[in-house]
């Protein structure tokens, strides 16, 4: 097995933006979560990793594991690229346990010999491990090669078991019409795969995209869901405003016909910084998702310090009416190292909240809005800037999130609610917002150097508000 060249590994030079309780690299670049699973008593999370700089580069699989889903231990890099099956990178993929063995199924990325990074081809490969730490690449890789009608985009396998058979879906772009599609494969041993064909295709590049990266197919409350990260969608008023965004279809997969019938595409998260999410099933049957605090389209000031990117907290996927939503995994409560506030107040403008460590705090706020007509807001700021502001306007039923430095705000319509509950997780350089038990989530980053930050609530009319806050840390 190839090894990382330790003498070339980059180092963190400044900890000012380092997160305290999110998965991040020891140093170097991170993007998508990969290979989420539970194996031999541990949760495992892998991630797209470039250990030699804080920029995206030849992709490795970084690796952490945890007993409780929130306290993570760094493990040696699981996959190092450069073998014939993955000459240009070990791209995203997933994991599955079969017997006593953990299998990783990932994309081999390859460049042609013309120095053009946009000119590549891709295949699918297997690696396995019996201890969950050391991985061996399968000697007969690749296990899947692209069908003839495919463009160069052919990646990010997500594998699962159904009725004693293994299946995987892949993100693909069809050559002829340049549209996104999802391909289905079937196997009885994870090594020999039969092509079942495209199960669904983008109806329009503008509305649904030209490539669905990182597809994730799973079942929730009797429905099949495909989550994916579409490229090429055009903004539609207040929706699809990011260059890279994560979205989903609800439908049904017909395994016999290899066809996925579904409703419209919806956003998975309404914030500025959420991409390439993946999910897995916990032993007690919850569907847990991690995403990447993207992205490729925004500056990441931490790159100056030798690292880039982090993964979100684990989120439990839930149905909220007929939409998919997320709540913080219950295990996040184990990150609490102390109660910082537990009070209630009549909020009018503006009301500053004092906690010991405002950059490492979980907020649980409930605004009573019965008979109300106005706006309420939560804001994280330093002396110079409003870093992140969340506001809800009861008249329009819309939530707006502002992030300093972003050209435009982000929105989610939740309708007219009598109570607004906002659970907000602030870490050194990120904010995750969960509204009303799955109605909407916003994933944001912010950057502030040495300046102290303040947290403020405001309301356009007096509002009774229950306020809880906890200090959070992974070392607790
Ligand atoms: C999504 C993605 C995947 C790919 C990986 C490469 O962010 O582009 O499609 O496998 O990142 O790092």
Write up what this structure looks like.
This protein has one helix at 205-208; strands spanning 28-39, 42-50, 60-66, 73-79, 89-98, 101-111, 120-129, 136-137, 144-145, 150-162, 165-174, 180-187, 194-201, 211-220, 223-231, 247-254, 259-262, 266-267, 275-281, 287-292, 307-308, 315-320, 323-328, 336-347, 351-353, 361-368, 375-381, 386-393, 398-403, 410-413, 419-427, 430-435, 440-445, 454-459, 463-472. The protein is mainly β. The strands form seven sheets. It has a six-stranded antiparallel β-sheet with strand order 24-35-26-31-32-33, with no helix packed on it. A six-stranded antiparallel β-sheet has the order 25-34-27-28-29-30, with no helix packed on it. The longest helix is centred in the middle third of the chain and has 4 residues, at 205-208. It is globular, with a radius of gyration of 22 Å. The structure holds beta-D-fructofuranose. Residues 31-32, 48, 59, 91-92, 107, 155-156, 213-214, 275-276 line the site of beta-D-fructofuranose.
Identify every distinct bound molecule in the structure, by name, code or SMILES: beta-D-fructofuranose
What Rg do the Cα atoms give? 22 Å
Detail the poorly predicted runs: none
Helicity level:
under 10%
Please outline the major beta sheet.
6 strands, antiparallel
How many E strands? 35
Count of discrete alpha- or pi-helical segments spanning 4 or more residues: 1
> Largest sheet, order of strands side by side?
24-35-26-31-32-33
How far apart, in Å, are the first and last alpha carbons? Answer: 35 Å
Roughly what is the average pLDDT, rounded to an integer?
96
Class from helix and strand fractions: mainly beta
Strand content: over 45%
